[in-house]
Every structure is written in structure tokens, then in C-alpha cells.
Amino acid sequence: MSLTNVPSSERLHIGFFGMRNAGKSSLVNAVTGQALSLVSDVKGTTTDPVKKAMELLPLGPVVIIDTPGLDDEGQLGAMRAARARQTLETVDIAVLVVDGETGMRGEDRELLALVQARKLPHIVCHSKCDRLSVRAPLSENELYVSAVTGEGVHELKERLGRLTGSMQKERLIVADLLSPGDVALLVVPVDEAAPKGRLILPQQQTLRELLDHHMTAVVCQDTEVKATLSMLAVKPKLVITDSQAFGRVSADVPEDIPLTSFSILMARYKGGLETQLRGAAALARLRDGERVLIAEGCTHHRQCNDIGTVKLPRWIEGYTKKKPVFEFCSGNEFPEDLSPYALVVHCGGCMLTEQVMKLRVGRAKQAGVPVVNYGVAIALMHGVLRRSIAMLPGAAQMLDGKA
């Protein structure tokens, strides 16, 4: 992926929801100016969520999602509807499309109640307004639209633009911890798990952010840390390593140089660092046979020494001297009911939006199940957790439960 592209995890996600034949897909096509979704008079034409990352004026970089009808029928239809409701948990803004000819039905009201319960920014669009002879007054967040005539489409985009503008805030991975001109050493192992010919997303994002804020980034592999430090005329203000290399790197980096990991920085960036720092203590309390969920936000080909399915279980067993039962999930798969688990160990979430990561951490917290980030867990098991969070404002107090 080019450093100039905005990854989907950094784009606002806008989902279009409603009943079958309410005009969702037609409205999506009208808003995007593209034939993004198939359109027909046959109910249930959209069978799976359709996603498109794009630049949409005046909104900027977004992901537009068209979803199956929530009233789909039969066993397969129920699965499609469930997937649409699952998508509702991943979006930043919901567009509820109500068939203007039939008016708001019970299913529409149930959907609206779900959106309001989540306090999700939303707009209710009454479609097919070109067919209406009488129009009832609408509330402030409702409007009439027609994908045929284009009525209301521009206004919808303007309203979405205002919503996204109010939601956008500057979030920084690491630049707020440093000053212009500072040097940061990025430790990037190149092993069998490294993607061929490119850096993984957190490494890309961190590197680009440092450059954008006029800081100097030096990059090396974990086997070259000592040699790289000896060549630098200026001591780095921070060393950031891949969490898997914490053991080797912490031994090679002098104690007077702050050290952290990409994964810990991502936990801070995505939200939920406090909960995940406090969840680290649960590792020492694990017992034989207890269930541990290891969750990754991306899907990739598993290598023979994969961090999630191989390294973490091995490290956890070595650290706890126990034999828990490990279960795994990846991508959009994440259990709604976390109560059976004694611990959730989650990746940094670079491929997930802030909204989704906060939802997952919040779900674990609500279930009373400790959740810990990959980087936090690995730092703890290698005896460098306090060192790895020392530079993060308030993190030590979070770890001690005093924040």
C-alpha cells in the first residue's frame, strides 16, 4: 500500500441500512455517482454488505457500505440480515433509508431504536419522494430523497459532510511524544511473517507521521539495533519496536533511551489503552483449562511461527506455567458473548476503525472479562511493561489503577 493512500481503518465508515426495496442501493449509487451496488425491483438484490473506499466531496476519504435488507426472509435471509446488523456496529454514521411510499414500518422503528441506543450519528432518508403526492413534515435529521430525479441527494451529502466534519479530530500515534528534529529508531524485523516487499500498516503510519511532523526516522532490523545505535551521532528520543522483538531489543537498547512498541502505540491511538493495561494483570491469574480468546483484526495467511496462533500461546504458557484453552478469531469475526472467556488478547487493531476497537474493548469490559493488547501482554511477559509505557502520559497511573 502506498504511503499516500488513506487506509480504510482511518476513513469514516458510512452505512446505508433499511428494508428490502427501500431504495438503499439506488441511493448509494446516486450519492457516490457510481454503479456501486446492483439495483433491481427484485427484493433482496443486495445479499452481502458492499464496501467502497473513495473520496467523496465534501466528505473526503470515506468507506461507503450498502447492506442487505433487514427484513430478508428464510434461513439465508436471516443470516444476511444478521450481517447487516453486524455492520451497524462498525460504522461511524448510519443512513436509514425508509421507503417513502410505504412509510416507516415497525422494522424501520426497531432499526432507528438500535441506532439511537448506540448514540450513532444518523440521517433518516425517505426515498422515492418523486412518487409522493403528499409529503408529511419531517424532523431535523430527516429528508426526502429521490435517486431518480436527484432531489435531496446533494443535501444528503452536505449533511453527511457536516456530520463528518464535527466528528473528525486530530489523533496522533507518536508525534505528540516528540518534538520537531527529534530522532526515533524504528525496529522492523524482517522474518517469515513479514509481508514481502512492504511494511505493515502500523509501521507505515508511524513512519509517515514522524516525517509529517519534521522528525527523523531511522529504521533497522532487530538484529541490527546495537550497530545502528553505535553509528548514530544523536541519541534517539524513542525506540519503537515490533512487539515480537521486545526481548532482544530491550536488551540492546540502553535504559536511558525510552522504548515502546508499535502495538502499544496503536492501543493508545485506537482507544482503550487504560482498560488493556489493567487487563494485563489477568495473565498472572490464568488457570489450567480456562478459555483465552486471541483476536486479530485482519485476516492473513498463517505462517508456521504466527504470532497469534503460535507465539502468543507459547509465551503465555511459559509465563503462567498453566495450560489454558486458546481460541482464535480474525477479521470481522468477534464473539458477541465474551462471558465464557477468562481473558481476551487483542492485536493492535490497525485494520479496524477506532469505533470498532472501542466497541470490542467496551464489550469485554461490560462482560467483566479482562482484555489486553498484544504489545502490552508481550511487554509484561518479557519484564519490560513499565519501561514500555513510561513515555506515555498517564500510562503508569492507568497500570496501577490510579488514573
How is this structure best described in words?
With 403 residues, the protein is an alpha/beta fold. It has helices spanning 24-32, 74-88, 106-117, 153-167, 201-212, 225-231, 246-252, 262-270, 273-279, 307-320, 354-366, 374-381, 385-389, 395-399; strands spanning 12-18, 50-56, 60-66, 93-99, 122-127, 142-144, 183-187, 216-220, 238-241, 259-261, 291-296, 325-330, 343-346, 371-373. The strands form three sheets. It has a six-stranded mixed β-sheet, sandwiched between helices. The protein has a four-stranded parallel β-sheet with strand order 8-7-9-10, with helices on both faces. The longest helix has 15 residues, at 74-88. The protein is globular and about 75 Å long. The model is unreliable at 37-47 (pLDDT under 50).
Describe the secondary-structure layout.
Layout: E1 12-18, H1 24-32, E2 50-56, E3 60-66, H2 74-88, E4 93-99, H3 106-117, E5 122-127, E6 142-144, H4 153-167, E7 183-187, H5 201-212, E8 216-220, H6 225-231, E9 238-241, H7 246-252, E10 259-261, H8 262-270, H9 273-279, E11 291-296, H10 307-320, E12 325-330, E13 343-346, H11 354-366, E14 371-373, H12 374-381, H13 385-389, H14 395-399
Parallel strand pairs: 1-3, 1-4, 4-5, 5-6, 7-8, 7-9, 9-10, 11-12, 11-13, 13-14
Antiparallel strand pairs: 2-3
Helix content: 25-40%
- Mean pLDDT, to the nearest integer, reads 86
**Residue fraction in strands:** 15-25%
Any idea what the radius of gyration is? 24 Å
Structural class: alpha/beta
Approximate shape: globular
The total count of helices amounts to 14
How many β-strand runs?
14
